[in-house]
Design brief:
CATH architecture of the largest domain: 3-Layer(aba) Sandwich
Number of helices: 11
Protein name: DegV family EDD domain-containing protein
Function: May bind long-chain fatty acids, such as palmitate, and may play a role in lipid transport or fatty acid metabolism.
Strand order of the largest sheet: 9-8-7-12-10-11
Shape: globular
Number of domains: 2
Pfam family, one: DegV
Helix content: 40-55%
Distance between the termini: 20 Å
Order of helices and strands: EHEEEHHEHEHHEHEEHEHEHEH
Strand content: 15-25%
Keywords: Lipid-binding
Structural class: alpha/beta
Number of strands: 12
Radius of gyration: 19 Å
Oligomer: single chain
Largest sheet: 6 strands, mixed
InterPro entries: DegV, DegV_C, DegV_domain_contain
CATH class of the largest domain: Alpha Beta
């Protein structure tokens, strides 16, 4: 048995890292009008946000279509030709993408190997860390079902929260409604979005300033830090270097013993949250699950 891990760039993983981690990575497609780009291949994150700002004057709305099953099928056949018998395909949350369901329905057409679709119930870092964990376990020779058990353990600890300038992109795609908690009217300010444990994204309220949103996110992080497991936290930004530096300084001052990573909100999720978005994601450190596995 030889197990491979397949995911796409909406996991916040770039191609250099994917090669190092032995992750098969597909580029998420991004559409600007009639032109198609590919995340991290011919569309770096900085270029995407530059195009996004220019597109506003032309009323062009970018979209992120699903990766085609033809490309997934071809990739699986290529993996099978190298001796791979099983592939775990880690997709973005069903709350924002139908990719995993589409793959589950299509998988019987892929006969060259066994396909294991997996709903990460997240995006960016929370999705990417599941791919990293799966790849490390696969290298150790862990069977697919055991890898999925460990992925569930990690997924159950994931949290993501974002503050955005507008929820118009999400209203357009139908991924959230325009109301706050309990279907109450959304208060003035910057909307706050969170991923629920089911993977569905919802509006959790609003903040008058980015600083207030960051304070709320750190309050939520404090509860996770009280647990007896190591925590990995990441500050996410949509091409906002100055705000990111401010958030990082605030987070490190409040929690000096925690290492905060920084990552960009790439184009495939930037389509949903727009420029100006900031976020905080955290979960159990996936490397601690590798250690647990090694001790068994």
């Amino acid at each position: 048995m030889k197990v491979a891990v397949l995911t796409d760039t909406s996991a916040g993983i770039e191609f250099v890292e994917a090669k190092q981690q032995q992750i098969t990575l597909l580029a998420a497609p991004i559409m600007f009008g009639n032109r198609q780009y590919h995340e991290y291949q011919d569309l770096p994150t900085a270029d995407y946000y530059r195009l996004l700002r220019l597109a506003k004057s032309k009323k062009l709305v970018p979209t992120a279509p699903q990766i085609s099953m033809k490309i997934v099928h071809q990739t699986c056949d290529e993996l099978a030709a190298t001796g791979v018998t099983d592939v775990i395909v880690i997709g973005p949350s069903l709350g924002i993408s139908g990719f995993v369901n589409t793959l589950a329905a299509y998988a019987e057409n892929i006969t060259s190997l066994h396909v294991w679709p997996w709903d990460s119930r997240g995006i960016l870092t929370t999705m990417g860390d599941q791919a990293r964990l799966a790849a490390m376990l696969a290298v150790q020779g862990t069977p697919p079902r055991e890898i999925l058990e460990q992925l569930k353990r990690l997924r159950d600890t994931t949290h993501s929260a974002f503050v955005v300038d507008s929820i118009k992109p999400l209203l357009r795609t139908g991924e959230v409604n325009g109301h706050g908690p309990g279907n109450a009217p959304l208060l003035p300010g910057k909307p706050i979005l969170v991923f629920e444990s089911s993977g569905k994204m919802r509006v959790a309220g609003s903040a008058l300033r980015l600083k207030g949103a960051m304070s709320d996110f750190l309050d939520d992080l404090a509860a996770a830090l009280a647990e007896a497991v190591p925590v990995k936290a990441t500050i996410l930004n949509a091409d906002q270097p100055e705000t990111t530096a401010q958030w990082l300084a605030t987070a490190q001052k409040r929690f000096p013993s925690v290492k905060f990573d920084v990552a960009e909100i790439g184009p495939s999720f930037g389509v949903h949250v727009g420029d100006g978005a900031m976020g905080l994601a955290w979960s159990q450190d996936y490397q601690s699950l590798i250690s647990v596995e090694n001790e068994k």
